[in-house]
C-alpha cells in the first residue's frame, strides 16, 4: 500500500510539473501576427541544442523575462525528477545568457533542483528506494557514517568526483540522514567547477563540434583531483579525533 501511495504522489507532482512546462513551452510570445509557433523540447544532441539556441535567441531581446522563466522551469524540472541531460541545460544557459550570468544561475538552479529531488524522495520516495535500490543505499550508508566528522567535505568529494551518480545521491541523501542545508551547500559548491566548464563552453557553442569537447579527459582528471583535495579536510578531522580519543 505504501508503494502505491508513493507512486501516486510522485506521479501527480510529475504530471503537474510536466503540464506547467508544456503550457509554458507552447505559449511563447510571437514576434509578429504571422509568426508560427514551434513546440519546444529538451535538446538531446548538439544539433538540437544549436537549433534551440537559435530559436530562443530570436525572442530573448524582447522577451527576456519569458526566456528566463522557461529556462529556470526546464532546469528545475530536469533536476527535480532526476532526468539526465544537465550538460545540455548548462550549455544552453551559457549560450543564452553568457558565462557570468549563466554560471551563478546554473549553480543556484542545480542546487535548488537537487534539493527538490531530495524533498520529493524524503516525503514520497523512501519506500520505493528501499524496496528497489536497497543494495545501492547500504554502501553509501556506511560511507556517510564513516565520514560524519567531515560530512560536508565528503559530500563535496562526491559532487566534485566526475563519476559520481548525482541523480542517485539526490534521491538517497534523505535516507542517509544527510541534513538538507549541508546537502544544498554541497551541491551548490561541489558542482561549481562542472557548471562553469559547461557554461563557458556554451558561450562558445559555435566552436564545438561534439559534446565530447566539453568534458575532455584532461577536464575529468582536473575534477577528480579537486574531489580528492576536498576529501582531505574530512580525513584530517577523523585523524585528529582519533588522536584525541
Provide tags for this entry.
245 residues; mainly alpha; 0% strand
Give the helices and strands, then pairings.
Blueprint: H1 2-26, H2 46-60, H3 64-80, H4 86-97, H5 99-132, H6 134-146, H7 151-160, H8 166-172, H9 180-190, H10 192-202, H11 217-244
Structure description:
There is one protein chain. The chain has about 240 residues and is an all-alpha fold. It has 11 helices and no strands. Helix 4 (about 85-95) packs antiparallel against helix 5 and helix 5 (about 100-130) crosses helix 10. The N and C termini lie far apart (about 45 Å). The mean pLDDT is about 85.
Q: Please count the beta strands (DSSP E, at least 2 residues each).
A: 0
Derived from helix and strand composition plus strand pairing, the structural class reads mainly alpha
Strand content: under 5%
Instruction: Count helical runs.
Output: 11
Into which percent range does the helicity of residues fall? over 70%
CA-CA gap between termini:
47 Å
User: For the report, how would you describe the main beta sheet?
Assistant: none
* Outline: globular
Following the backbone from N to C, one meets helices and strands in this order, namely: HHHHHHHHHHH
Which radius of gyration do the C-alpha atoms yield?
20 Å
Q: Return residue spans where pLDDT drops below 50 for at least 5 consecutive residues.
A: none
- Mean of residue pLDDT? 84
Summarize the structure.
The chain is mostly helical and 245 residues long. It is built from eleven helices and no strands.
Amino acid at each position: 500500500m505504501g508503494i502505491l501511495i508513493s507512486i501516486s504522489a510522485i506521479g501527480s507532482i510529475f504530471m503537474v510539473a510536466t503540464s506547467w512546462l508544456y503550457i509554458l513551452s507552447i505559449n511563447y510570445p510571437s514576434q509578429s501576427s504571422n509568426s508560427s509557433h514551434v513546440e519546444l523540447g529538451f535538446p538531446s544532441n548538439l544539433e538540437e541544442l544549436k537549433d534551440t539556441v537559435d530559436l530562443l535567441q530570436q525572442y530573448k531581446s524582447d522577451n527576456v523575462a519569458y526566456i528566463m522563466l522557461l529556462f529556470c522551469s526546464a532546469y528545475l524540472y530536469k533536476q527535480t525528477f532526476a532526468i539526465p541531460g544537465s550538460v545540455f541545460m548548462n550549455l544552453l544557459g551559457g549560450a543564452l545568457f553568457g558565462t557570468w550570468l549563466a554560471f551563478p544561475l546554473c549553480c543556484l538552479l542545480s542546487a535548488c533542483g537537487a534539493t527538490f529531488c531530495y524533498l520529493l524522495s524524503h516525503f514520497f520516495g523512501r519506500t520505493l528506494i528501499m524496496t528497489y535500490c536497497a543494495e545501492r543505499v547500504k554502501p553509501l550508508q556506511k560511507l556517510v557514517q564513516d565520514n560524519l566528522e567531515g560530512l560536508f567535505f565528503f559530500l563535496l568529494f562526491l559532487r566534485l568526483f566526475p563519476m559520481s551518480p548525482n541523480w542517485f545521491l539526490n534521491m538517497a541523501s534523505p535516507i542517509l540522514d544527510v541534513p538538507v542545508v549541508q546537502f544544498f551547500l554541497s551541491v551548490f559548491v561541489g558542482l561549481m567547477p562542472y557548471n562553469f566548464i559547461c557554461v563557458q563552453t556554451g558561450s562558445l557553442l559555435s566552436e564545438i563540434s561534439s559534446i565530447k569537447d566539453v568534458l575532455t579527459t584532461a577536464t575529468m582528471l582536473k575534477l577528480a583531483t579537486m574531489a580528492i583535495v576536498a576529501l582531505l579536510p574530512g580525513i584530517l578531522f577523523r585523524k585528529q579525533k582519533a588522536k584525541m580519543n
